[in-house]
Structure formats: C-alpha cells, structure tokens
Amino acid sequence: MKSVLGILTVLICLSSISASAQGGGGGQQDPAARAAMMKERYKALGCNDVQVDSVIAITNDFRPKMMALRDLDQDARAEKMKEINDERNKRLEKALPADIAKKVIEAMSQQRPGGGRAPNQ
Questions:
Q1: Which residue in 6, 80, 90, 98 is a FRET match for 71, CA 20 to 30 A apart?
Q2: What's the pLDDT score for residue 118?
Q3: Rounded Cα–Cα distance for residues 60 and 75 (Å)
Q4: Does some domain include residue 102?
Q5: What is the pLDDT of residue 110?
Q6: Are the C-beta atoms of 83 and 66 separated by less than 8 Å?
Q7: Count of structural domains within the chain
Q8: What is the C-alpha separation between 1 and 18, in angstroms, rounded?
Q9: What is the rounded distance in angstroms from the CA atom of residue 97 to the CA atom of residue 40?
Q10: Which residues of 85-113 are buried (b: 16+ CB within 10 A; e: fewer)?
Q11: What pLDDT is recorded for position 120?
Q12: Which residues fall within 8 angstroms of residue 28, CB to CB, at 6 or more apart?
C-alpha cells in the first residue's frame, strides 16, 4: 500500500511540474503569444485583419489604465473598471460595424476579471 501511495505521489508531482512547464501554471503569457491568441479570438468573432488590429490597438490602449487599478480596494476597482470598460466599448463601437462590435464587447465581458486568473490569486 505504501508503494502505491508513493507512486501516486510521484506521478502527481510530475504531472504538476509538466503542466507548469507547458504554461498551465497560471503565469503571464509572452506578448507575442498573447497577441496571437487575441487575433484568433477576434477573427473567430467575424473580424477581418484591419478590424482585429483595431480591437487589439484599443485593448492595448486601455490595458495600462486597467493595470493601474490593481492597488485599489475591490469596490473602487469595480467602479473604475466599469468606467474604463464603458469608454473602451464606445471606442470599439466607433471602430467596428455594429454587429461585430456587439460580439467583441460581449466576448470581452465574459472574460474573467484579472486577465483570466482565478479569484484570490
């Protein structure tokens, strides 16, 4: 029984190390991988290349504003984040056709807060 538990422990350790090494450890992606992922996501929503570039540029413009909110308490951060998101959405609505802007905004609103990290990390 001890040997079975020992083997299971080793397998669990190895699988967690492997997942972490493959980028499954919850860390930040490099900018090139992040941009490629964003391009795929927006193309799947019906954006052409120019529209994808516009969405990424708008998103990148607002990223520093959102990152600056990390030190605020949860209520203040939520209020400011809503203001920033509203401003970003207005720019997206100006840059994209209405149907595509709606899809992009909806997809962005379904993302988890904090760039996809699990809460309380």
A1: 90
A2: 42
A3: 24
A4: yes
A5: 87
A6: no
A7: 1
A8: 26
A9: 19
A10: eeebbebbeebbeeebbebbbeebeeeee
A11: 45
A12: 115
Does 3 map to a domain? no
Residue listed under structure tokens 């709606």: 102
What residue has token string 């309380």?
120
- Nearest Cα to Cα of residue 77 among 89, 61, 66: 66
- Is residue 50 in a domain? yes
Provide the pLDDT for residue 38: 86
pLDDT at 31 over 50: yes
d(CA 37, CA 48): 15
Task: Please tell me the distance from the alpha carbon of residue 5 to that of residue 41, in angstroms, as a whole number.
Answer: 42
Residue 71 domain-assigned? yes
Place of tokens 């990424």: 56
